[in-house]
Amino acid sequence: MYDNLASIDITSLQEKVYQSVRLALLKGHFQPGDVMSIRKLAEALGTSPMPVREALKRLIAEKALVQTSGRQILVTPFDPQRHEEFIRIRMKLEGFAAERAAMVRDAGLVDRLEKFNLAMIESARQSKFEEALAANYDFHFEVYRAAGYPQLVEILESLWVRAGPYLTMLGNLKPVNAMKSFDNGHKAHARAIMAIANRDAKEAGRAIALDIRMATLYLREIYATQLAQSTARPINGDFYVRRRQPEDTEDAGRTFQPR
Questions:
Q1: E strand or H helix that includes residue 183
Q2: 3, part of any domain
Q3: How far apart are CA 23 and CA 219, in angstroms?
Q4: In this structure, what DSSP letter does residue 240 have?
Q5: 137 near 120, Cβ under 8 Å?
Q6: For residue 174, is it within any domain?
């Protein structure tokens, strides 16, 4: 009587969980040093712990997460030396994508970019930083998809899975400084839009690279503050700054809302 029961596609479920958590990291739902609670993620996603555990293993392999010697899983904490290397790679690749985008003929691209840039700065002015970051993501990937290189977009998405949590750290700044960061980003985006409208590939690449570099200055300010508060500790032989948690347990992560 069991012969006619449909089998459950566990692989599909694991992939959906992976993509959901990956998207949350990519869009900056978590911050560096956040504890990833398997139990809370499973509850939020309405699934069992097993597919969550498998998804986190994949993200550890992609270096978006790290596992401590105590078997805690954290969003990769901020490390200034590694971040500098990471930023230089992003500036080159994302600048190249912007150059390519400036050479394509897409009549609606400039209008779409202006819409996302306006949404970002208006959200920031209302201190809706999560919405501002989402609009920032939409702006950048509208540019990158316009480049017409799908494999490049895939590479940049993998980088942004690691970059998303860093950008969320901007919310730790004083509101006036966070606003300055978004205002600088808005101006860099406007330069990129103008360059794309004028089909000036080099200027488009420079504008996007400048946008990435300027955000780094604010991240280093946050890092210095965290270091002064003695949140630094070794993880797997390296020295990181980890964000303070309300409890030092596996279930101390922030509430996760799937999107």
A1: helix 175-197
A2: no
A3: 21
A4: E
A5: no
A6: yes
pTM of the model as a whole: 0.79
> Looking at the domain assignment, is residue 236 inside a domain?
no
| Rounded Cα gap, residues 77 and 31, in angstroms | 8
Count other C-beta atoms under 10 Å from residue 36's C-beta. Answer: 27
Domain count, the chain: 2
Q: Which residues contact 41 (CB under 8 A, 6 or more apart)?
A: 21, 52, 56, 253, 256
User: Are the C-beta atoms of residues 136 and 214 closer than 8 Å to each other?
Assistant: no
Please check whether residues 190 and 143 belong to one and the same domain: yes
Please give the pLDDT value at position 105: 87
Strand pairing report for 232-235 and 238-241: antiparallel
Q: Which domain holds residue 63?
A: 10-77
Which residues, other chains included, contact 133 with Cβ-Cβ below 8 Å and sequence gap of 6+? 27, 28, 164, 167, 168, 170
Angle at which helices 109-125 and 129-146 cross, to 10°: 160
Nearest-CA neighbor of 59 among 161, 169, 165? 161
DSSP alpha helix (H) spans, 4-149? 10-26, 38-45, 49-61, 80-102, 109-125, 129-146
How does pLDDT run across 195-220, given as a tens digit for each residue? 999 999 999 999 999 999 988 877 77
